[in-house]
Recover the amino acids of this structure.
């Protein structure tokens, strides 16, 4: 059995994945009957199962495996002062640039990063690094004219027009705003949250006091966020409505880098535990730090369009809690009565924060891209291609399919009995249409790990044939062993043990 060799950066493969995602119920363009809405997508019947499995695994990995991490669910709407304190009102901007010939708009930093990636692909690593450092310096200093000059100097062309006829670089605020209030004259501006982290920070004391939490401890949250992206592209990689899974870990000042490195390693290990190959992941240290950070790194995955961020780990210092303390005039201090090396209490301080932030949609896309497999298989004298989704069994939308060999002779009744015995513990499918081979293929295309064939022998000795998705090998086993056999493969415990 030979697997096709894939080109690392191949947009055609992304097109195949997008097509597959729609055809088999994973992702649909939003409002498609009205020609859709750019950069907004809906998750189909298979997609929502996969996404929920990913979110559930992340949640349990954070809150169930760590006694000092708890969860909350904060509201999307927050007091406008929240975003003033966080810096989003004044500095949540992307550098925007337009090509005068194509009339297309781009993020200036993305154009430069893609040029650096090109240098890196050509083996010019120093040149790539120097370019990114220069970009970080110019953007940090708000030298937007110099950013435009850098783009022109590097001969960065518009992909559409092929020219360097660029406008000036302008800053573009990414927050969506709306009005709250029943009467227009009395309404006030409120924002759709651009991140979930601030809901954690404003609830820091609520959670700490009611949960009697001791530093170091973390607060986790999964929720929707909204950004008016200049260029939303590459399928669900960059959208205007997306979902974040964030954990803010509160630590003593001076210990933040120790915890930063611990979470950096732990989070990469988590991605590998769900089946992402180590060679498809890498760290990328930030050249340009956000205004709140003293260290930041991305965990990047090798998508069909290149290495891109899936998760960020940031040392946010005490910026957020300090800002909220100053603007709200509510103390955000923690009293630490543990003893330091000199035998004295640590006393009052504003904790530092280490953040782990992973996009649920990017995690979904990474999982889908990694699972999408094409291979050549030999059956008898014939060779044919096979496509299947090689999900970790614990993440697969459907865990097993019950397939009676025929629609008669009592096989559907026996298959239904088996289906009903397993359906309360596992997400199952019962299917009796078409040949058994076609049904196997359909289950492969949605990533079902096990197909259970019910045949005439089943009626005689209560055994069934279980086909493995990846190897296509088939084993005969008693019906009574099915539950433990499936559970061993699909239980989150198989992943948790790798994280211990």
């Amino acid at each position: 059995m030979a697997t096709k060799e894939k080109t690392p950066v191949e947009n055609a493969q992304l097109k195949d994945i997008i097509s597959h995602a729609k055809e088999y119920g994973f992702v649909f363009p939003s409002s498609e009957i009205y020609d859709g809405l750019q950069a907004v997508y809906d998750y189909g019947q298979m997609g929502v199962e996969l996404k929920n499995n990913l979110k559930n695994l992340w949640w349990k990995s954070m809150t169930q495996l760590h006694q000092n991490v708890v969860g909350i669910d904060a509201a999307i709407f927050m007091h406008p002062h929240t975003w003033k304190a966080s810096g989003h009102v004044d500095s949540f901007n992307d550098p925007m640039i337009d090509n005068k010939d194509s009339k297309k708009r781009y993020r200036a930093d993305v154009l430069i990063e893609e040029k650096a990636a090109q240098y890196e692909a050509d083996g010019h690593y120093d040149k790539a690094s120097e370019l990114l450092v220069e970009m970080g310096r110019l953007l940090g200093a708000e030298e937007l004219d110099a950013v435009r000059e850098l783009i022109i100097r590097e001969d960065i062309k518009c992909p559409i027009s092929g020219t360097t006829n660029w406008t000036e670089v302008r800053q573009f605020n990414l927050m969506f705003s709306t009005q709250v209030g029943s009467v227009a004259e009395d309404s006030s501006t409120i924002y759709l949250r651009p991140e979930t982290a601030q809901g954690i920070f404003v609830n820091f004391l609520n959670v700490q006091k009611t949960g009697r939490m001791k530093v170091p401890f973390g607060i986790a949250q999964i929720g929707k966020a909204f950004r008016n992206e200049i260029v939303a592209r590459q399928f669900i990689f960059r959208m205007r409505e997306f979902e974040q899974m964030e954990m803010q870990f509160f630590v003593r000042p001076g210990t933040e880098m120790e915890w930063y490195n611990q979470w950096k390693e732990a989070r990469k290990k988590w991605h590998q535990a769900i089946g992402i190959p180590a060679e498809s992941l890498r760290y990328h240290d930030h050249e340009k730090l956000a205004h709140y950070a003293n260290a930041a790194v991305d965990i990047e995955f090798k998508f069909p369009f290149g290495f891109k961020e899936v998760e960020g780990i940031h040392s946010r210092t005490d910026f957020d809690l300090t800002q909220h303390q100053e603007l709200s005039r509510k103390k955000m201090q923690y009293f630490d009565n543990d003893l330091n090396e000199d035998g004295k209490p640590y006393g009052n301080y504003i904790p530092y924060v280490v953040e782990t932030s992973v996009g649920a949609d990017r995690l979904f896309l990474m999982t889908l891209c990694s699972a999408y497999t094409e291979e050549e298989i030999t059956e008898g004298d014939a060779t044919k291609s096979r496509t299947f989704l090689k999900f970790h069994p614990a993440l697969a939308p459907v865990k097993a399919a019950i397939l009676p060999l025929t629609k008669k002779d009592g096989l559907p009744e026996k298959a239904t009995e088996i289906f009903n015995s397993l359906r309360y513990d596992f997400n199952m499918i019962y299917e009796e249409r078409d040949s058994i081979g076609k049904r196997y293929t359909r289950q492969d295309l949605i990533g079902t790990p096990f197909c259970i064939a019910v045949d005439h022998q089943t009626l005689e000795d209560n055994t069934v044939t279980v086909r493995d998705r990846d190897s296509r090998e088939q084993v005969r086993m008693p019906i009574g062993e099915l539950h433990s056999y499936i559970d061993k493969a699909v239980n989150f415990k198989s992943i948790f043990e790798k994280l211990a």
The chain has a mean pLDDT of 91.
